[in-house]
């Protein structure tokens, strides 16, 4: 998604809102897609293009996967997750679900990092997102 958005503005800017370990009190839909563990790494960001908010993203990584590639997710800083994920071998997608959150389109993606560690990514496409450009209020797939 990051590459697709960069085509519209050249460079995506990340603003982190929340980042750190959280207890296992996650949403039921998320819990079904992740292993049961005591805590998770949570990263919530907004991606901006042309200084306008285009997308919100929420990343969850089980704390039991802190080693290996998952460790790098914990220290992304202001680097878009998609930039890091697709730098090498693209992750395997176990599940991808599209739907609406209010008036916004959103998607859940359950990914497997190179060593098999799970990662859950939830994205909501904000009204200024250029993927709504078709005019029918649905982001291009």
UniProtKB/TrEMBL annotation:
Keywords assigned: Cytoplasm, Lyase, Ubiquinone biosynthesis
UniProt-listed InterPro entries: Chorismate--pyruvate_lyase, Chorismate_lyase_/UTRA_dom_sf
Keyword Lyase: yes
One MF term in the entry's GO annotations: lyase activity
Gene3D superfamilies assigned: Chorismate lyase-like
PANTHER family to which the protein is assigned, alphabetical: CHORISMATE PYRUVATE-LYASE
Name of the protein: Chorismate lyase
Lineage, uppermost ranks: Bacteria, Pseudomonadati, Pseudomonadota, Gammaproteobacteria, Enterobacterales
